[in-house]
Amino acid sequence: MKKIVLLFVSLITIGNIFAQNTIPNGGFETWGGNSLFTQEQPNDWTAALDGTVTLYGSYGIPVHYYFGTKSNDAHSGNYALKLVSQNVGITGSSVSYQFPGIAQLGNADGFSIPLSTVTNLAGLISNLGNGQLDSIPLTMEDLQSLSSLSELMAPGIAFTTTPAHLNLWVKYLPQGNDQLRVIAYTRSGRIPVGYGTYTSEASMPEYTQIRVSFSNALEACDSLSIIILTGGLNPDPATELYVDDVTVDFTPDQVDDNIADQFSIYPTPAEGTLFVHAGDDQPYHCSLYDLTGKVVMENTQAVGHSTLNVHNLVPGVYMLRITNGNGSTTKKVVIR
């Protein structure tokens, strides 16, 4: 009886959620962007680097690079978003980087950053597109600039509930070792709530739907961010990605009702050591992810009690995914 009541309440809740949380311009049918951009952009999305790079003192160089263009090759409707990489060069300097094609949910407001930050940003984006986030030396000024740039370029949209899945129709024509990568996450204030990632090197010459599952589905949040990348480290300029019909749904995957209760994770926040304890002797697999979706630690053959040494990890929020024969569960972990 209790499960029936919970199911009934969940169905009502999901109906309300769906009515309140949708992806604006998910079909990329409306274009124009805001007055900042010198080239047409999809409304409610940003697929450009558009701002000012400071070279000497207050001397700034305008930067206008567009990764996304309107395409008639659509899955449905009239238009889709076409993404390609761009060689980003700074006038008056020898700096030049091949940036992967990148699209982000939300309208950018531009940026003004020092040249050194562009160098670091190129490395960060390349590593992110390649499924990596290696240690790159940054000054405190650079970190502040990157933080500001991130907020300006990827503000996301207002959202009140973490979806269960992000769904996209894509056509992908990779060259070399390029990857398609999708990163999505929800936040409450500055605290991450749920996240999902997808990576593929496979060619998709016809439109194919991909599905990105969120951790902590149906958890309350206040914003949703989506980042779509084509390419990776040293992306090939011939790689093309077409994106259309971006939607979310709020129907969680079916998993064993009790799997979340089978495991205890402590302490949280963790300092140095994180313990996982299973309530039975069934083998399980645990993977610790950072918020880019990179696996930073794994225990593939755990039974009963296991220990993760997190001493060398950067303090912050991580997601611990535990899988056994009954299904999987994801829990948020804070590391100090």
Question: How do the helices and strands line up, and which of them pair or pack?
Answer:
Layout: H1 2-20, E1 45-46, E2 48-56, E3 59-66, E4 68-71, E5 80-83, E6 86-89, E7 96-99, E8 101-105, E9 112-114, H2 115-129, H3 140-153, E10 157-158, E11 165-173, E12 179-188, E13 191-200, E14 204-213, E15 223-231, E16 240-249, E17 263-266, E18 273-278, E19 284-289, E20 295-302, E21 305-309, E22 316-324, E23 327-335
Parallel strand pairs: 2-9
Antiparallel strand pairs: 1-8, 2-3, 4-5, 5-16, 6-7, 8-15, 10-15, 11-14, 11-16, 12-13, 12-15, 17-18, 18-21, 19-20, 19-22, 22-23
Helix pairs in contact: 2-3
How would you concisely characterize the structure shown here?
It is built from 3 helices and 23 strands.
Describe the structure.
It contains three helices and 23 strands. The protein has 336 residues and is mostly beta strands. Strands 1, 8, 10, 12, 13 and 15 form a six-stranded antiparallel beta sheet that branches. Strands 4-5-16-11-14 form a five-stranded antiparallel beta sheet, with no helix packed on it. The protein has a four-stranded antiparallel beta sheet with strand order 20-19-22-23, with no helix packed on it. A hairpin with a 5-residue loop joins strand 19 and strand 20 (295-302). The chain is globular and about 60 Å long. Residues 1-19 and 126-152 have low confidence and may be disordered.
